[in-house]
Amino acid sequence: MTGTDSGGAGGAGRGTDGNERTFAALPPAQGRAFAQTWWGRAWLKALEDTALDLGQLKKGRKQARDGAVGAVSVRPGRITAVVRDRDGTAHRSDVLLQQLSTEEWDRFLDMVVERAGHIAALLDRDMPPHLVEEAASAGVELLPGIGDLEPECACDAWDLCLHTAALCYQVARLLDEDPFVLLLMRGRGERQLLDELQVRSARAARTRRGPAGGGDSSEDTGDEAADGAAGIRADEAFAARDILPPLPPPPPVPQEPGLPPSLDTEAAPPPGIDADALEFLAADAAGRALRLLVDALSAGHERQPLDRELTPGQDAVRLAASCGDPLIAVRLAEGTGRQRAELDLAVEAWRHGGAAALAVLEEEWQPEPEALARAKADLAGAWEDGERPQVRAGVAGRWTVVGADVQLRYGRDGRWWPYRKVRGRWGAAGPSAADPASALAGVGAGA
């Protein structure tokens, strides 16, 4: 479940905010009772004791059993769903339930924290009878009684109709899985309740410990050493293990990377430190960090392969490809031992395919004969006789088109890369393709 409430009802709940949860439509309930738990049955008893027309109740039960109830929205004091008739007519149906007052919630929460078992039961999606009985003794009625459920339906029925009855039967299935659904109808969402229980549990623990280290408990303003020495009961700590404060919402992703720190100061940099180069690298690191963050937050990022670590030579080409500053390109060429023309070729290859394309430009390797044989067959079948371009096989999986300054290179990634000769140098001419014919078509060879 997303949002501030945790997922209940078998994980079907989807939170919209702390005061509303929406549950997807449940499948038909053929051959099973709607309520398995005692509190789910108590909900249905309140429904059946309230109904004046048992015929409508039976019709509603059948509608719910047949899967006619759509997604159910639960919020304080109200449950809502669209229920369809057999002819497909849709009706919005609501059932209202009185919310607990602030004073009633205070009594209920104070009662829960008095017994660690109550907290443990709620966290285990259980509502033991003694919890409800003790709440009733404190004047807090959690489960509805006769007349507590007030139906409203777009079919204009003045009393419980088959649509609101079907909705109530469906809610019984939700209550079976998660009693927090009932507490939300009574006015408080799960996250809010757990936060309040955490605060009250901590306050109750301090009260039970009394003065710590000889000081008055009223003066205990955060003496962590004293609290730690006094300790708390093991059952209390275990019961509160899952009561955690909510995580803050993630900050919005910035539209652009932040500005790097300026190193233009009055003091001269230490010997061997190039302030301009450091500023450039800091700006590049900020840009890469933003791209990584955007990728990490995108859908399906967990299935994307991780980028392998680049060598200094590869990273220099990446820097040159990303900045476009000719002065920086000159320095990068000098730092990597390349001629400027060689760096330009490397940058062009990088822009077509990153490290894989750079390897095709700079590395020579011998592909498996079987892979080359399959590629020749694919190439031969791509054109009609007399139209097929003639290629001359060279070393390292490099095939040159006869009569044209076009070449195909087979990479370690199993793809074919088109190359074109310009001013006597072979350079990458486009993205790769899975077969040689497509790679040639990408540069217009043999079209």
Please bin the fraction of helical residues: 40-55%
| Average predicted confidence as pLDDT | 80
Please give the alpha-carbon distance between the first and last residues: 54 Å
Work out the helix count: 16
Unreliable sequence segments: 1-17, 212-229
In percent, how much strand structure appears in the residues?
5-15%
Coarse shape: elongated
Summarize, please:
The protein is α+β, with helices and mostly antiparallel strands and 447 residues long. The chain is 44% helix and 12% strand. The chain is built from 16 helices and 11 strands.
Q: What would you note in describing this structure?
A:
With 447 residues, the protein is an alpha+beta fold. The chain is 44% helix and 12% strand. The chain has 16 helices and 11 strands. The strands form 2 sheets. Strands 1-2-3-4-5-6 form a 6-stranded antiparallel sheet. A 5-stranded antiparallel sheet has the order 7-8-9-10-11. The longest helix has 23 residues. It is elongated. It starts with 12 loop residues before the first strand and ends in a 5-residue tail after the last helix.
